[in-house]
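Lecture notes, unit on protein representations.

Consider one protein chain, 80 amino acids long.
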Amino acid sequence: MKNNYNFKHPNYEIVKQEINKLNISIIDIHEEVFEINKDPLSLFPFGIHGHYNADGYRLVAEAIQKRIIEDGYVSIKLRE
């Protein structure tokens, strides 16, 4: 589900293109967390873009965890 949140660094697309050209694997937190959240500003203190709040950090950590498990860097058994 997309939302109206559109805070991307001015060089976001350029950096993504270069990373893809170099075949470097990344975890795009903007895409994985903020674009799909109904109210992404709720993941920042006082709804102001900057550092994440506890919920924001939790969702970022979950996105990272999901990816490293999917890529086989961590066994699911380690989570239990």
